[in-house]
């Protein structure tokens, strides 16, 4: 009953939203010291999507960004606060913008193209995130020299070790459920390579995946690829796997120059 009342209240309260508020805030971990590869990809994808929609938002970096869920649980990043409501994760934020502000990049697509885009989004998010988590937490060199230091840097001793243990345990459970925990890195990189080949074929010589205008897929793919390209890790097998697709490299360069360069802002 309480859940039903809460859902009704949120629908009623957000139904009146028409104009994008000036005080919208996007929360994420600290980029330089704390954020991990998969989190950076998700946060960048949402930031890119908001820029593509020309929706201004203040970016705030918080040490406790992943614990900002109203329920007190870990939150999938990033966290978007719009007035008195909080939304997290790429898919949920995209849905919220479409339902409450009528903002969507995929509106011009045909029903068949929308279905294709959604299925590709799911595959991109699942496989890239899995590979990013695997490299970050299962590869011993990356885990011990980069991941644990970044994940635990905002906590005092011995809480930093406790938080690292909790996060690693959660990632291992996710990988186990997806049947990737005991796979070798070569198997996972093979699937990533297959996905990149498919994305490269879909993109071809176009600027975006569905022509001259971006969609959710472009924001999501850019978030993952650009994060993989730019985050320095002792094992750069992910970057090497996707680097050989020249049109995907150019795709990232185009979006970076259009939406994040000084001229593109």
From TrEMBL:
According to the entry, every stretch annotated as the Thioredoxin-like fold domain falls at: 41-141
Q: Which residues form the signal peptide?
A: none
Q: Biological process (GO) annotations?
A: mitochondrion organization
Q: Which CDD domains match?
A: GST_N_Metaxin2 (cd03079)
Which stretches make up the Metaxin glutathione S-transferase domain? 194-255
- List the Pfam families: GST_C_6, GST_N_4
Per the record, its GO cellular-component terms are:
SAM complex
Entry-linked PANTHER family = METAXIN RELATED, METAXIN-2
What protein does this entry describe?
Metaxin-2
Q: Which organism is it from?
A: Anopheles quadriannulatus (Mosquito)
